[in-house]
Fold:
Amino acid sequence: MATLPLNGKPEFCVVDGAGKLYNNLEDKSEVIEIDAAKPAVTRRVSLAPARVHRAWPSTFKNKKLFSVGDNKMMAVTDIATMKVIATPAIGAGPDAAGFDPGTGLAFSSNGDGTMTIVKLVNGKYEAADTVATERGARTMTVDPKLHRVYLLAAEYGPAPEAKEGKKGRPPVLPDSFHVLVVGK
Structure:
């Protein structure tokens, strides 16, 4: 239908079911709103002080976006105002965020082997709990019917030597892939 210049590196996109798309630009730590009917970028917001570079989901029940960043911070953005309203602390090395509209809990899967649970307490979003997972269990999805979080994990071998100043990723060991299930 159309190609839009986003002026950044898009990481993940979610839709609201009413014609709007929201995408984070990981190189700019911004969220943009796209009106699919026009199509055009209609609004953008900086997620500072969070340095967001990873995927985020949203809930349109309460009109909030949850974004995770590399400075151990989740940015909670109010869609109506496109302003960051909270920055609760999360674990190191996050990759994904999730939200369960039934429980009102937001989640951050962290590469340090933890999952942070964020909830609204007395009108303020804050980290309510940290669950031990596994190092590298960062890809995540939330099942809103069963109120469970699924994280992908594997065992890793030693990291290869750095080349051209860049660290290599450790290889996944064969037959070690598994799914972690977190729930009540």
User: Anything to note?
Assistant: The longest strand covers residues 124-132. The chain has a mean pLDDT of 89.
